[in-house]
Design goal:
Strand content: 15-25%
Distance between the termini: 55 Å
Mean pLDDT: 91
Shape: globular
Number of helices: 8
Helix content: 25-40%
Order of helices and strands: EEEHEHEHEHEEEEHEHHH
Radius of gyration: 22 Å
Number of strands: 11
Largest sheet: 9 strands, mixed
Length: 263
């Protein structure tokens, strides 16, 4: 089984986010593998291991797109257990929106040859659009399942559960397919010492736009469908309203909420 997992290098949520001033793109100096992508990677590893792992010919390929630092997301994926890594990097990719990103990633997936499954997280933790998986499926002409909270594969079909607020549904799709998974599907493993050492011997393939047949004009700012025209620092929070309880705090609270039209 050949599984491609999309992994993204995103700003660490523990730190404030900043724009780098070059076309309002995100400053990625303090970045890590997107936590939501770890669930997709864990799902891929479990599917591969259930079929005998790499020794039985199963492949889990971690694919990341981004500047030089994005290769760290691929390295973390290899430490967790991915068998191969691919880093798509090109200066023309800078500033790509979801549409341009999905175009480039679709070309990269095609470049890898026939695959059985493409797994993604439910969203990136920077843009949080959840658009790329659907666009990727459309560009690849593959069935798509979004927000899967469980996933099994039997023969040439996958079965996934999707949980809504008041109901759950089970859906099936033929392989190959594109599936995005939620943070409820599993508990991602931590890289152990053995995995970290093994990752040093695994290969990372670097691809450029020319190698996957994408015109630079189709990606980056030039190829994006959306443009950020302005951005500004969020103003500091103002002091809130303090209600002192003098026996009438409940009434004051209700009056406050009514004044804010929250009741």
């Amino acid at each position: 089984m050949k599984i491609v997992v999309l992994v993204k290098h995103v700003p660490d949520a523990q730190f404030d986010r900043h724009l780098n001033g070059e076309g309002y793109t995100t400053d990625r100096d303090e970045s890590i593998l997107s936590e939501l992508d770890e669930y997709a990677l864990e799902a891929a590893l479990q599917l591969a291991e259930a079929r005998g792992g790499a020794k039985a010919g199963n492949q889990v390929i971690a694919l990341s797109m981004g500047p030089a630092g994005a290769v760290n997301a691929v390295k973390k994926s290899l430490q967790m257990g991915a068998t191969e890594g691919v880093h798509l990097t090109d200066s023309a990719l800078a500033g790509s929106d979801a549409a341009a990103t999905s175009l480039a990633l679709a070309a990269a997936v095609r470049h890898l040859g026939a695959v059985d499954l493409v797994l993604t997280g439910m969203a990136s933790t920077d843009g949080e659009t959840s658009l790329v998986p659907a666009q990727l499926a459309e560009r690849l002409g593959l069935p798509q399942v979004t927000f899967a909270s469980s996933l099994t594969v039997d023969g040439g079909r996958l079965t996934a559960r999707r949980d809504a607020d008041t109901y759950s549904e089970t859906v099936e799709a033929a392989l190959p397919a594109v599936v995005s998974v939620t943070d409820q599907i599993n508990e991602p493993r931590y890289p152990n010492f053995k995995g970290i050492i093994a990752a040093k011997r695994k290969s990372i393939t670097t691809l450029s736009l020319a190698e996957i047949g994408v015109d630079p004009a189709q990606v980056g700012h030039a190829g994006s469908w959306t443009t950020v025209t302005a951005a500004a620092e969020r103003p500091p929070r103002t002091a809130g309203t303090i209600i002192t309880d003098e026996g009438d705090a409940g009434i004051k609270l209700v009056d406050f909420l009514a004044a804010q039209k929250l009741l």
